[in-house]
Amino acid sequence: MRAAREAWFDGQLSLDPDSLVFIDETAAATNMVRPYGRSPRGERCRISAPHGHYKTTTVTAALRTSGLVATTLFDGETNGERFRAYVTDTLVPVLKWGDAVILDNLPSHKVAGVREQIETAGARLS
Fold first, then answer.
1. Statement: residue 34 has pLDDT above 80
2. Strand order in the sheet with 20-29
3. N or C terminus: fewer CB in 10 A for the chain?
4. 3-state DSSP of 7-76
5. Beta-carbon count within 10 A of 32 CB
6. Residue 91: what are its φ and ψ, rounded to 5°?
7. Are 89 and 117 in contact (CB under 8 A)?
8. Is the pLDDT of residue 32 over 80?
9. 8-21 pLDDT, tens per residue?
10. Strand, coil or helix: what is 114?
11. What are the Cα distances from residue 7, in Å, to 56, 61, 77, 81, 119?
12. Cα 81 to chain center, whole Å?
């Protein structure tokens, strides 16, 4: 693992910044309220929050030096099947030959078919 990390760092100097494509997700849920708050002494701190039916929304996007591309919105969390569909339907059409796609260690990024779809577009997974 250490050798692979050092090879990645050494190879960064030859990368073209305009060919880098970073993929990441962010999510918001309706039950995301602060667990603590402030109020005047002697008064109860109150906050309104939805009760019962919680909803999670996930945004997945690709970032280039020119800005965001291949943005999609999921109703719920990202899983392997949804991420593979995102790569096939949204990311691959905007990839250029020679692009380097950079993913984090989210388990849904490691499902079968993701690497193959990216490489079919002429890009590489870094």
1. no
2. 67-75, 56-64, 20-29, 100-102, 124-125
3. N
4. HHHHHHHHCCHHHEEEEEEEEEECCCCCCCCCCCCCCCCCCCCCCCCCCEEEEEEEEECCEEEEEEEEEC
5. 10
6. -80, -50
7. no
8. no
9. 788 778 788 999 99
10. helix
11. 38, 27, 33, 31, 20
12. 14
Q: How many residues does the chain have?
A: 126
Which amino acid, one-letter code, is at 99?
A: D
8's CB contacts (< 8 A; 6+ apart) are 126
CB distance 70 to 92 below 8 Å: no
In the beta sheet, which residues pair with residue 20?
A: 100
Structure tokens at 117: 């779809």
Asked whether residue 59 carries a pLDDT value surpassing 90, the answer given is yes
- Give me 33's structure tokens: 């309220």
